[in-house]
Design a protein that fits this description.
Amidase signature (AS) enzymes, 11-stranded mixed β-sheet, two-stranded antiparallel sheet, 15 helices, 13 strands, 38% helix, Amidase, AS_sf
Length: 463
């Protein structure tokens, strides 16, 4: 096994035991990037010299007894919305082509403090306003979409071009590409991870979170990143904890909600079969399955768009007027559409969100978490615009991909996506676990227990 193939946990254990050096790991991942990046286009910028310098510093510190913890010496990719001092943050747009960050975002600073090593900035759909990341190709099939908007981060992790990565999630942008590329993606509770220094799409829906190869890896990154930051008005003051899940796989006593509506409507049969099989595995580990009714489902799409579109348009108001030609057409049209929405539309969406949060809180009194598909379809072909379901109905690709992930953004509850198999075309299938606010530890425990019953996953080999 080459160092780039190691999970974060495996690499951290090897570094701590002095069986692997940060320099060896960084060199291996950079070589993997050189081999694979021309086919997958996961990175907007690769900071190879900076990477090697930081790896040498990490190796020196560890040898001197200044080991900082499990992220020390671990190479990471950072989505090109997240500021790192001295590195461009273009947000995937010509609008920001000349922007270079002067200071670190809070999350980048915390990862640096933990000893993580920057590999570069990963591609995003322009300003995170899309679900495909058109610059990037799927790690399992280059003729398929990567998913978005954190497509570059998910593909980098899936293909061994980063040991872990950061993404952002406004309507599913961590979980969708994670599901489509066969990796783990965590959207934490709203406000748990600070967003200072992160380019916004929609203030009231934006989240930052990790993309990793295993659930335990996600827990390690979350532990390093969580904590209050007064520079983010939404930042929570939750106490710092260690999110690493227990080794035991016994889930006895846990109540897992299985939706009887919404999440299994209009999805591919292979996805339904794989997710229900995974849920059965959780039951075999001792969990009790409880059918639940997802509330207010008819309002999900209207609420998501009613919040996101006007907030995005407000953020881009100046540049939309001064340099509209620098936006890609799909994003410019959405931003211009936001100018047509009224204050009443936005206030009704806010009211709907408040009611939805209340109803979800009531539902989650009866179960500890919910298990459901992450996306209704595996990765579609590049250029495909719609999905036709068995009943003849037609749905836009972006609408389909956001449909099952948006409720967690509207309500702010944590959601963890993890791989649960492949379809007959060899494309990954994802299941998401949704829980109560600030109960990431429950999702991580359940996801980790499921992983322990499965064979070790291989890296993607794109064709």
């Amino acid at each position: 096994m080459q160092p780039y193939e190691l999970s974060l946990t495996e690499a951290a254990d090897a570094i701590r035991a002095r069986q692997l050096s940060p320099v060896e790991l960084a060199d291996s991942v950079l070589e993997r990037i050189a081999q694979t990046e021309p086919h997958l286009h996961a990175y907007a910028t690769v900071t190879a010299e900076r990477t090697r310098r930081a790896a040498r510093e990490g190796e020196h510190d560890i040898a001197a007894g200044r080991y900082r913890g499990p992220l020390h010496g671990i190479p990471m990719g950072v989505k090109d919305l997240i500021d790192v001092a001295g590195v461009a943050t273009t947000a995937g747009s010509r609008v920001r082509a000349d922007h270079r960050a002067q200071t670190d975002s809070t999350v980048a600073a915390r990862l640096t403090r933990a000893g993580a090593v920057l590999l570069g900035k990963t591609h995003t759909h322009e300003f995170a306003y899309g679900l495909t990341t058109p610059q990037t190709r799927n790690a399992w099939d280059t003729g398929r979409v990567a998913g978005g908007s954190s497509g570059g981060s998910a593909v980098a992790v899936a293909a061994g071009m980063a040991t872990f990565a950061l993404g952002t999630d406004t309507g599913g942008s961590i979980r969708v590409p994670s599901a489509l590329n066969g990796v783990v993606g965590l959207k934490p509770t709203y406000g748990l991870l600070p967003r200072h220094g992160v380019t916004s799409l929609s203030w009231s829906l934006d989240h930052v979170g990790p993309i990793t190869r295993t659930v335990e890896d996600a827990a390690l990154v979350l532990t390093a990143l969580a904590g209050h930051d007064p520079r983010d008005p939404a930042s929570l003051t939750a106490p710092a904890i260690d999110y690493r899940p227990p080794a035991a796989v016994d889930l006895k006593g846990l109540r897992i909600g299985v939706p009887r509506n919404y999440y299994f409507d209009h999805i591919a049969p292979e996805i339904e079969a794989a997710v229900r099989h995974a849920i059965d595995q959780l039951q075999a580990l001792g969990a009790r399955l409880v059918e639940v009714e997802i509330p207010m489902t008819r309002y999900v799409q209207a609420t998501q768009w009613g919040l996101m579109v006007p907030e995005a348009t407000a953020y881009h108001a100046d540049t939309l007027r001064t340099v509209p030609e620098l936006y890609e057409a799909d994003v410019r049209i959405l931003l211009e559409a936001g100018e047509l929405m009224t204050a009443g539309d936005y206030l009704r969406a806010q009211r709907s969100r408040t009611l939805m949060r209340q109803e979800w809180a009531r539902m989650l009194e009866d179960v500890d978490l919910i298990a459901a598909p992450t996306v209704p379809a595996t990765a579609v072909r590049v250029g495909q615009e719609t999905i036709t379901w068995a009943d003849g109905s037609v749905e836009g690709v972006s609408d389909a991909y956001v449909r099952l992930s948006a409720p967690a953004n509207i309500t702010g509850v944590p959601s963890l996506s993890l791989p649960v198999g492949h379809d007959t075309a060899g494309l990954p299938i994802g299941m998401q676990l949704l829980g109560r606010p600030l109960e990431e530890s429950v999702l991580l425990r359940v996801g980790h227990a499921y992983e322990q019953t499965q064979p070790v996953r291989d890296l993607a080999r794109a064709t």
